[in-house]
Amino acid sequence: MADSQQRCILVTGGAGFIGSHVVRHFVRKYPHYRIINVDQLTYAGNLENLADVQDAPNYCFVRGDVGDLETMRSLLREQKVDGIIHLAAESHVDRSICDPLLFARTNVMGTLNLLQAARECWSGQWEGRRFHHVSTDEVYGALEPGEAAFSETTPYSPHSPYSASKASSDHFVRAYHDTYGLPVVLTNCSNNYGPYQFPEKLIPLCIHNICEEKPLPIYGNGENVRDWLHVQDHAQAIDEVFHRGRDGESYNIGGGNEWRNIDIVRKLIRLVDEELGRPVGYSDRLITFVADRAGHDLRYAINAEKLRRELGWVPQRSFETGLRETVKWYMEHADWVRNVTSGAYERYYAEMYGDR
Predict the structure, then answer these.
(1) Could you state, in order of their start, the residue ranges of all structural domains in the chain?
(2) Of 48, 82, 137, 297, which one is the catalytic site residue?
(3) Residue 124: φ, ψ to 5°
(4) Is 162 a catalytic residue?
(5) pLDDT, tens digit, for every residue of 188-221?
(6) Catalytic hit among 39, 138, 239, 273
(7) What is residue 34's three-state secondary structure?
(8) Is 349 a catalytic residue?
(9) Nearest to residue 86, comparing CAs of 44, 155, 135, 50?
(10) How do beta strands 225-230 and 258-260 pair?
(11) Which sign does the torsion angle of CA 212, 324, 274, 331 carry?
């Protein structure tokens, strides 16, 4: 797909962790595009994440819910949207166990609403249009130690309400391509880390708790393994797939960077204590093993060879560098952490957009 023409790209969930990095990447790299960020601004959506681009001439924020079909229809028609990068989703496994119906409404019906709105708005005129659905490696289920990493042909086997809702949305995206010809691409990514991640996730939670000398809750024995990727590398991969991926194809995005949870926590302890001038191992005492959560998958690992082979994408940040930068960012942005954990970020929206 050519990137030199004027385009209007709708990014859903663009005030969230990954979404805000995608929005920033596209706003800065493609000044000739109009980038529309639609976000409902639930607990994980925070416009402070985009304060540095909020006044860019090619950026627009719309508060909206992908679960509202009429709103999505109107938005696509009025703004003449020709590209959609769909990230809006409930994404925390623990929350999905507590409220699976919310995850079905947002992740399944929200995706279906967008697909239907795109199908109606584009009305068979597919040239230059694209629906990019951003999904997760969790749809594949779990791997045993030593088992080959997930590829694009790995059968789906979701184990939590979250991963089941994402698997369902993936199937609807493919169905709209196969049934109606809607031009789509899908990406399934491994665990992300980096700036602006909501502090309920492992890495920012641990950084915050180490700084505050609070317990570090680790599920089970900490042996669960995840493949970690810096969020800015993910944003670049989305860019490549959105523009150059083959229609109807899925691409796995991963860091080739597997770590046990307990080893991640120990690395974070070392880095934070070093930043604070504490003795080596000072915060080891904070590690607290807690009862494992239901359906906790042992290991995820991504084979991203297809993405490398077809589009030339490889991660640019080493994990050591990326993690050190992430620790410094959270420690230098303590006000941001306080705002999102206290709910004060909601006032930012009212102040910035209350009269618009």
Answers:
(1) 7-193+230-256+298-318+346-353
(2) 137
(3) 80, -10
(4) yes
(5) 999 999 999 988 789 999 999 999 999 998 989 9
(6) 138
(7) strand
(8) no
(9) 135
(10) antiparallel
(11) negative
- Please identify which residue in the block is written with the tokens 């719309």: 62
- Classify 348 as helix, strand or coil: helix
Instruction: Pick the catalytic residue from 30, 162, 176, 330.
Output: 162
Q: Which residue is listed with tokens 């694009």? A: 152
Q: CA-CA distance, 12 to 249, in Å (whole number)?
A: 20
Q: Is the dihedral of CA 147, 150, 151, 155 positive or negative?
A: positive
Q: Is 196 a catalytic residue?
A: no
DSSP assignment of 140-209, as one string? G----TTPPPB-TTSPP---SHHHHHHHHHHHHHHHHHHHH---EEEEEE-EEESTT--TTSHHHHHHHH
Question: What does the alpha-carbon distance between residue 11 and residue 151 come to, in Å, rounded to a whole number?
Answer: 26
Over residues 238-294, the pLDDT tens digits come to 999 999 999 999 999 999 999 999 999 999 999 999 999 999 999 999 999 988 877
Residues 6+ apart with CB under 8 A from 97: 160, 161, 293, 294, 295
CA dist 54 and 100 (Å) reads: 33
Please state, rounded to an integer, the average pLDDT across all residues of the chain: 92
Q: For domain 7-193+230-256+298-318+346-353, which CATH number applies: 1.20.210.10, 2.40.50.430, 3.40.50.720, 3.40.50.2300? A: 3.40.50.720
pTM of the model: 0.92
